[in-house]
């Protein structure tokens, strides 16, 4: 049990980083990590003995993020119905030119952020990512290619600049 | 073995170090002779490097003791105990049978949910994360009270917290399974936020004994008044919380 805890402890900083990149908010991120660890500890027996612990935890955390996201979307829609207002329109911040790679990264959809973090930052194999997302490796590669392209364009400001030029 | 010229996927796999040694050499020879492709690949490599550098900072957050596996194990054990205890009540109830059993089940279900958990949830959604915008904004208590009275007849008056430096700034209507609720956020000059939460007691008219409960970094004080349940949510361990405790008698 102590050995398991030690393995988990080593991975907590990586889980927190992944969670921040998904939620963009440190306190939500820690809630997510906590929920992920609770699930991991209570489902420990489901883990494949030969599987990579880090990839398994990423997959739990990602799924919980998607569930929570879905729930809050539903909640927002319900409120919109109740108050007759649309809270879901994109914020003005979105159209601001991305000045740093982090800003560009933060503008990507959640799945693209997760893909780039898993592959480029954590160095997971395409197969591991395919297992997490439950899709074939070919799909991982095409989604990754789109994510890279999107990050490239945002970093170059290719998307944001033309919109600003019109104002001249 | 990949075929030449390399496909886009092959180039991505090259960037991600996912090619075999032989394939990797093939791609390098190809890139040496094709500057346009080499430029694209370099841009991807640079983006990846930027990401690694930028995101490495996020690995060095100060530790959060709530996330320690030993703490989490402890919490899971408590939760199991509570569920077992609830199950035990149910067993007894089934033994007693009939109406008594049903009644005990209701009590179990009601006590299993922490009181006014929705008030804390609303505080987190609105005051902390700013996920939902306000329905009503006002700097003065009269205006806010008027707004609240439109939806909740004969409710407790909004508490006057000016003594502690807090003013009502925004209100938001919410929907709960007990009926429509509202939350009024108070803020002080330092940006600290506390909330006043009101909702009907639900179809079973479940009124609360006056109480207080701590949940993570938040403290909830709750009570029942004329026709409604109320809660005030305060971030605990802040100077604001101390001042309020001294100022107010919840």
% residues in beta strands of chain A: under 5%
Domain module tally of chain B? 3
Total count of helical runs of at least 4 residues of chain B: 8
Radius of gyration of chain A: 18 Å
Structural class, from helix and strand content of chain A? mainly alpha
Second CATH tier, the architecture of the largest domain in chain A? Orthogonal Bundle
Question: Considering DSSP H and I runs of 4 or more, what fraction of the residues of chain A is helical?
Answer: over 70%
**Uncertain segments of chain B:** 91-112
Poorly predicted ranges of chain A: 85-99, 158-168
Q: Output mean pLDDT of chain A.
A: 78
Strand segment count of chain B: 7
The number of helical runs of chain A is 8
General form of chain B = elongated
Domain RNA polymerase sigma factor 70 region 4 type (chain A): 103-151
GO molecular function, one term (chain A): DNA binding
Family (chain A): Belongs to the sigma-70 factor family. ECF subfamily.
Protein name (chain A): RNA polymerase subunit sigma-24
General description of the model:
The complex is a heterodimer of chains A (168) and B (250). Chain A is mainly α. In chain A, 73% of the residues lie in helices and 0% in strands. The longest helix of chain A is centred in the middle third of the chain and has 31 residues, at 53-83. Chain B folds into three domains: 8-58, no CATH class; 68-112, no CATH class; 114-247, 2-Layer Sandwich (Phosphorylase Kinase, domain 1), CATH 3.30.200.100. Chain B has helices at residues 8-15, 21-33, 35-56, 69-96, 98-112, 117-128, 141-151, 239-247; strands at 136-137, 167-176, 179-187, 193-199, 211-215, 218-225, 228-235. In chain B, helix 4 (69-96) runs antiparallel to helix 5. The longest helix of chain B is centred in the first third of the chain and has 28 residues, at 69-96. Classes of the chains: A mainly alpha (168), B alpha+beta (250). The interface between A and B is large, with 51 and 42 residues. Chain A: This is RNA polymerase subunit sigma-24. Chain A: Residues 12-61 form the PhyR sigma2 domain. Chain A: Keywords: Sigma factor, Transcription, Transcription regulation. Chain A: Residues 103-151 form the RNA polymerase sigma factor 70 region 4 type domain.
């Amino acid at each position: 049990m102590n050995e398991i805890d030690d393995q988990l402890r080593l991975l907590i900083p990586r889980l927190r980083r992944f969670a921040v990149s998904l939620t963009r908010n440190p306190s939500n991120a820690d809630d997510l990590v906590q929920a992920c660890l609770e699930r991991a500890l209570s489902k420990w027996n489901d883990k494949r003995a030969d599987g990579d612990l880090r990839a398994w935890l990423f997959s739990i955390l990602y799924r919980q993020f998607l569930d929570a996201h879905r729930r809050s979307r539903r909640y927002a829609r319900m409120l919109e119905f109740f108050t007759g207002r649309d809270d879901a329109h994109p914020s003005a911040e979105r159209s601001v030119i991305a000045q740093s790679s982090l800003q560009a990264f933060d503008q990507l959809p959640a799945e693209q952020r997760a893909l780039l973090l898993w592959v480029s930052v954590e160095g997971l194999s395409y197969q591991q990512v395919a297992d997490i997302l439950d899709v074939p490796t070919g799909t991982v590669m095409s989604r990754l290619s789109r994510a890279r392209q999107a990050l490239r364009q945002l970093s170059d400001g290719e998307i944001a600049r033309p919109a600003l030029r019109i104002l001249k | 073995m990949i075929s030449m010229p390399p496909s886009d996927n092959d180039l991505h796999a090259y960037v991600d170090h996912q090619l075999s040694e032989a394939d990797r050499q093939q791609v390098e020879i190809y890139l040496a002779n094709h500057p346009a492709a080499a430029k694209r690949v370099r841009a991807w490599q640079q983006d990846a490097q930027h990401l690694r550098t930028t995101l490495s900072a996020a690995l060095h957050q100060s530790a959060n003791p709530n996330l320690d596996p030993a703490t989490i194990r402890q919490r899971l054990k408590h939760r199991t105990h509570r569920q077992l205890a609830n199950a035990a009540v149910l067993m007894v109830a089934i033994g007693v049978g009939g109406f008594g059993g049903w009644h005990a089940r209701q009590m179990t279900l009601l006590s299993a949910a922490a009181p006014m958990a929705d008030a804390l949830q609303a505080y987190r959604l609105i005051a902390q994360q700013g996920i939902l915008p306000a329905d009503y904004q006002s700097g003065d208590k009269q205006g806010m009270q008027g707004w609240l009275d439109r939806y909740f007849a004969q409710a407790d008056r909004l508490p006057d917290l000016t003594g502690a430096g807090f003013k009502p700034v925004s209100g938001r209507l919410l929907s709960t399974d007990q009926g429509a609720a509202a939350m009024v956020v108070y803020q002080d000059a330092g940006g600290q936020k506390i909330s006043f939460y009101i909702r009907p007691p639900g179809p079973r008219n479940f009124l609360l004994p006056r109480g207080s409960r701590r949940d993570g970094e938040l403290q909830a004080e709750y009570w029942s008044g004329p026709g409604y349940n109320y809660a005030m949510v305060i971030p605990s361990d802040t100077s604001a919380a101390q001042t309020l405790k001294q100022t107010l008698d919840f």
